[in-house]
Design goal:
By secondary structure, the protein is of the alpha/beta class. The protein is built from 13 helices and eleven strands. Strand 1, helix 2 and strand 2 form a beta-alpha-beta unit. The longest helix is centred in the last third of the chain and has 35 residues. It is globular.
Length: about 350
């Protein structure tokens, strides 16, 4: 009898101690990257990592090239349940709150992806940004950052003095204000108009993407000068999920996705560091001149950027909080302009 009771007790304890099996879930995620691009292939690896590590309890249906809704609508589509997660970037949402600028493209802040990622994971950034995302029913899971973008130009751009009257294609928003303060003439135009504008001389240069991406686009078939490494813009693509969907996952499922996201962050930074270095070597051989701005020149740009940050900080309490957080962390890294 005692043995029988012991067996029953042991069996009951095992049932109680066994965690509930993860419920199978399918996550519908959209990215603006095409599947054949480097970023698209990295996103596909992220999908495989999550599905494999979860033992099949998480299935991801990835929609590439913004095939469900427009890129700028991805965030809202996830928040409203049309999608489950958004894999584009916070900078597309500055119309909702100016604070999204400081989780999307800080501009003139960090020198490397690793510094920027360290603010998110070790500088209190994730907690600070999470309040902003949660206000819109979303959960920020992580970032993937491909590195500094390069300015491309038909004339030499060795330092800030070359920016005076420099006519270049710029995306809208904070960037136009920063460069205008340095004497440049930023012209906002659609990405598809860049090549005709360069060829006809409407613009002298462009802010398009990182060096390797610019090579792939064919920009250096037209212009023969570029900044490298870049200094002005380093967009943070994000993974942000509908908060109800995120909260409905098990602890292990959330941990798997977060871990896979951190792997994607490292792989993205390393992949593009190598690709940009290879592109730089190839361009030099082809006669393209690359300009690595000095620490002093970068500080000049950063000082101009910080003046605009302060103006944007006045746009909302959330923007003010994120600007404060970045400044404190940049100060710890010795990157804050005096």
């Amino acid at each position: 009898m005692k043995l029988r009771n012991l067996v029953k007790t042991t069996a009951l304890a095992a049932v109680v101690a066994t965690p509930a099996l993860a419920q199978d879930v399918t996550l519908r995620i959209q990215t603006h990257y095409a599947p054949e691009t480097t970023s698209g292939k990295l996103a596909a690896q992220f999908v495989d990592d999550v599905e494999t590590m979860s033992g099949g309890s998480i299935d991801i249906e990835m929609f590439y090239s913004s095939s469900v809704v427009a890129t700028v609508e991805t965030f809202d589509a996830a928040a409203s349940g049309i999608l489950d997660c958004d894999m584009t970037g916070g900078a597309y949402q500055t119309g909702k709150n100016a604070a999204f600028q400081f989780v999307g493209d800080i501009m003139g802040g960090y020198d490397t992806p690793y510094q920027q990622l360290s603010w998110l994971y070790y500088g209190g950034g994730l907690e600070a940004a999470q309040e902003l995302y949660n206000e819109f029913g979303m959960q920020l899971v992580g970032w993937w950052i491909y590195g500094q973008e390069s300015l491309s130009s038909s004339k030499p751009i060795p330092g800030p003095e070359a920016l005076k009257d420099f006519k270049f294609r710029s995306p809208p928003g904070m960037e136009t204000e920063i460069f205008a303060n340095l004497g440049a003439t930023p012209i906002v135009m659609d990405f598809t108009e860049i090549f005709t504008a360069l060829e006809t001389g409407i613009i002298e240069g462009t802010d398009a993407s990182g060096l390797a991406n610019n090579v792939g686009l064919g920009i250096y078939d037209i212009v023969k000068h570029a900044t490298y490494p870049g200094f002005h813009s380093m967009p943070s693509d994000h993974l942000a999920c509908n908060k109800n969907v995120w909260d409905g996952l098990t602890d292990s499922q959330r941990r798997i996705i977060s871990t896979a996201m951190q792997k994607l962050s490292l792989q993205t930074a390393l992949t593009f560091e190598k690709a940009n270095a290879e592109a730089a070597a190839k361009l030099r051989e082809e006669g393209v001149t690359l300009y690595d701005w000095s620490a002093e020149d970068r500080a000049t740009f950063r000082a101009s950027a910080q003046k605009v940050w302060d103006e944007w900080a006045k746009k909302s309490p959330e923007a003010a909080a994120l600007v404060k957080s970045h400044k404190e962390y940049l100060g710890q890294l010795g990157l804050l302009s005096k």
